[in-house]
Task: inverse folding
């Protein structure tokens, strides 16, 4: 299974500003000052630091609060990445070249793995986005009131809006590039494949959270003394199982979005189906978010154990991305036919703006919901 820098990969790599020939099979280290765009090292710091923050928070939730969900979710995200990413980067290794083909390529960042296909920040991104989405929904009490399934839907919606703030911007700043000749990337919303918006930005994280909550989380409405206390071995195998099952269920739930994909290159039917799914997610997600916000504003919020992460990091993540968007705005506004002067494709302005606004709503609602939680949580000793 020798690695080859196939023509499509070479073309995308050249567009991004690097050569894929001769890449190291294990890893590579570059100067952050030599990267293609100045935002890239800042993005790395934001995401890698967020993953470390999330891990510390997850450990605290397990050891101090007796809830292993966050820790299971953090590591399940890495298991999921280990299962899903290699076939996407190297479909020929798995006999998928005719079905999947070359889909996209990340640009080269400071730390890269797997023949320069996998940046370190992407490894960190999986636990980061899953923790952001889960913690926001947990802080709003949706899991406690409505259970794992509805909570997972709300998490999928939170993941959609936070993920797309990032996803709609990345191609313009050359953080990665999609292969335009691969039909699996059709239809697209501006510079982003709509299948990616549905499957990877929402379904995957919603499924993962549901599995982790069911396998390692406390029972719905359980008091602290009745919660499931898992040892390290139990937590480990349940976490691995959740990570392995996530892509299986993800593929099943993504199947309807492949309707009409063979219809002579006409993606109209597929676009309609994907929009129906995304629209349904927005409708349900906004309803759940509105209900949770009103409950929070009408009365004193219930204490939320260990609220530090949700009070700080989602706002930092969103704020940095908004700053990136503002610096990219002049080139965005000057783009012609969706392409900037230097040839980079831009995202969809109105969808990106909607995601920014709803992400900000999540942040404000979660901070309000945890406003009475810190003092009580701090009284509990480690």
Result:
């Amino acid at each position: 299974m020798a690695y080859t820098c196939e023509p499509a990969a070479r073309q995308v790599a050249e567009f991004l500003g690097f050569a894929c020939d001769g890449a190291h099979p294990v890893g590579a280290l570059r100067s952050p000052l030599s990267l293609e765009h100045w935002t890239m090292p800042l993005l790395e710091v934001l995401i890698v630091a967020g993953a470390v923050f999330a891990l510390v928070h997850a450990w605290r939730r397990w050891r101090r609060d007796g809830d292993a969900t966050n820790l299971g979710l953090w590591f399940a995200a890495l298991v999921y990445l280990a299962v899903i990413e290699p076939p996407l980067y190297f479909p020929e290794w798995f006999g998928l070249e005719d079905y999947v083909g070359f889909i996209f390529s990340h640009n080269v960042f400071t730390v890269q793995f797997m023949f320069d296909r996998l940046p370190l920040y992407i490894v960190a991104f999986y636990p980061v986005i899953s923790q952001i989405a889960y913690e926001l929904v947990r802080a709003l009490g949706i899991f406690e009131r409505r259970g794992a399934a509805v909570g997972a839907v709300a998490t999928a919606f939170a993941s959609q809006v936070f993920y797309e703030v990032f996803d709609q911007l990345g191609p313009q700043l050359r953080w990665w590039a999609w292969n335009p000749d691969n039909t699996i990337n059709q239809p697209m919303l501006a510079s982003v494949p709509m299948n990616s918006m549905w499957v990877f930005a929402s379904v995957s994280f919603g499924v993962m959270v549901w599995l982790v909550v069911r396998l390692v989380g406390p029972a719905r409405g359980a008091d602290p003394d009745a919660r499931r206390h898992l040892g390290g071995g139990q937590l480990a195998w349940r976490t691995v199982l959740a990570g392995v099952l996530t892509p299986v269920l993800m593929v099943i739930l993504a199947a309807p979005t492949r309707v009409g994909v063979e219809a002579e290159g006409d993606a109209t039917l597929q676009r309609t189906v994907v929009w129906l799914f995304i629209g349904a997610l927005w409708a349900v997600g906004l309803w759940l978010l509105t209900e949770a916000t009103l409950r929070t504003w009408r009365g004193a919020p219930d204490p939320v154990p260990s609220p530090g992460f949700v009070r700080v990091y989602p706002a930092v993540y969103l704020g940095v991305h908004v700053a990136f968007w503002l610096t990219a705005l002049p080139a965005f506004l000057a783009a012609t036919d969706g392409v900037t002067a230097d040839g980079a494709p831009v995202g969809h302005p109105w969808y990106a703006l909607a995601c920014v606004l709803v992400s900000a709503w999540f942040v404000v609602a979660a901070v309000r919901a945890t406003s009475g939680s810190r003092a009580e949580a701090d009284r509990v000793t480690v």
User: Anything to note?
Assistant: Strands lie at 27-29, 104-106, 111-113, 118-119, 176-178, 188-189, 192-193.
